[in-house]
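Record type: monomer structure entry
Structure origin: computed from sequence
Chain ID: A
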Amino acid sequence: MTDIKFNRRAALAGGAAAFVTLATPGILRAQVDGARRNASSFVTQNWQDHFDSLGSGAIVCDTTSRALHYWNSDATDYRVYPTSVPMTDDLTRTGYTKIVRKKVGPDWTPTSNMKAANPDLPDYMPPGPDNPLGTHAMYLTWPAYLIHGTHDTRKIGRKSSSGCIGLYNAKIEELFAVTPIGTQVRII
């Protein structure tokens, strides 16, 4: 009969081997349908696939992988942020737009559709900790569609908005600071 001895080194080596074996299928699945994905499952985007030039900057909001991609005017600054996206396809507007206005401490007035769906919503909400637009908002050429922050961090990474793209407050503040008015936006 063989005497099997366990020691810390053997346990660690065995654990590492098991981890590699279990993790490998996930790594192999990272490339699906020709789209490259990173560990957080964001699909890699290239600005050239969406715009003829960067102009003053570019943003691609990917509603499938729930990520916002930002490039500055010379592509030396590329950032990716996790987002919340519209709850349904009916609420999702796709296409080209641009940033036309930016506001620190936005106020909020729910649309008539929001009020119809939830009559308990207030008619108006001033800036503050309960405001669903968070601390910063960037308004698009499409009325009632924004890229904004949220105080409800549970919404990020989910289908949870009424049409807007939401970011963590700290991340919208960062994006707000580097995004000029006129930045082109594509929502896909």
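Annotation 1: The chain has three helices and twelve strands.
Annotation 2: The longest strand covers residues 95-104.
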